[in-house]
Amino acid sequence: MSVIPFDEREGTIWFDGAMVPWREAKIHVLSHGLHYGSAVFEGERAYGGRIFKSREHSERLLRSAQLLDFEIPFSVDEIEAAKAQVLTTSGLKDAYLRPVAWRGSEMMGVAAQKNTIHLAIAAWEWPSYFDPATKMKGIRLDIADYRRPDPRTAPSTSKAAGLYMICTISKHRAENKGYADALMLDWEDNVAECTGANVFFIADGVIHTPEADRFLNGLTRQTVIELAKRRGVRVVERRIRPEEMADFSECFITGSAAEVTPVAEIGPYRFTPAALTKTLMDDYLAEVQPQAAAA
To answer: Which of 112, 128, 218, 239 is 20 to 30 A from 3 via CA?
Structure first.
């Protein structure tokens, strides 16, 4: 099936305060964000016309920019209004939204204090990140060669474009070997996260997940932890060594794109998606789609 390139699609994109034709939402090749990775973004999903945790995403976007030493020239309320306009204009009820902010072209070099900060927001249809027909069987993950960086070497709590370079490499390598994604370790060889999702494990009815102080603490991650606690399920956030994966019975990953996706395999380790994973998948669906829960 052919896929329409993103620069050739129809529609409009919110760009620095105005709606512009999709194909005209362009930047110059000498933009600082392209050359030096000075860009931040969010990945958000709308369900039934409602963006899940929209304000939290907007707030995180501003924090991410501040960690990269720039200020986005729009407030949370203005970003919220822009996202609502994009969703309404697109005519989409169930959609993926991508706000992205970056340094412009006034200065080309490592230093770029005077560069204009731009913001754009687009929305498009994006179905389940993984094949829904086989989702409950669990996806297969490789173990990445690259490590998530020490927070002393990179702004690891920012959703910064540059931090995803090793994620793209790791996902490509995993897909080339027949896996769906890759699990990444941190610089001390503890379990960290996948290339674009957080990871959870289950043993004897207790959920274990890496402490999110060395990588992005995903909003979906936070939501799933809250959902588990509502059910009285114990959640332990801690350092997890790779060899401990042999002791877990279930595994799943979470993210705005991945939602809640079961895992059947990580390298040499095997898991069987079961009742607790399915329960959290259903609870998450009910949380993001209240109308589905009432149906």
So the answer is: 218
Which sign, positive or negative, has the C-alpha torsion 278, 279, 285, 291? Answer: positive
- 78-92 confidence digits (pLDDT tens): 999 999 999 999 999
- Residue-averaged pLDDT of the chain: 94
Radius of gyration of the chain (CA): 19
Domain formed by 6-124, architecture: 2-Layer Sandwich (3.30)
Distance of alpha carbon 62 from its chain centroid, rounded?
A: 16
Using alpha carbons, list the distances in angstroms from residue 184 to 32, 37, 122, 203: 28, 21, 29, 21
Q: CATH for 135-294? A: 3.20.10.10
d(CA 44, CA 172): 23
Q: How far apart are CA 11 and CA 23, in angstroms?
A: 8
Looking from the CA of 143 toward its CB, the CA atoms found within 13 Å total: 15
CB 238, CB 211: distance < 8 Å: yes
Looking at the chain, the domain(s) classified CATH 3.20.10.10 span: 135-294
Q: What is the pLDDT of residue 294?
A: 40
Residues 273 and 264 sit within 8 Å (Cβ to Cβ)? yes
Active site residue 159: yes
Residues of the chain with CATH 3.30.470.10: 6-124
Give the whole-angstrom CA distance, residue 146 versus residue 183. 10
**Which residue, chain included where needed, has tokens 């939290």?**
56
Sign of the Cα pseudo-torsion (235, 238, 239, 244, in order): negative
Per the listing, tokens 């709590």 go with 157
pTM for the whole thing?
A: 0.93
293 pLDDT band (50/70/90 cuts)? very low
Q: Phi and psi at residue 2, in whole multiples of 5°? A: -75, 145
Choosing from 83, 159, 177, 278, which is the catalytic residue? 159
Number of H helices, E strands in the chain: 7, 16
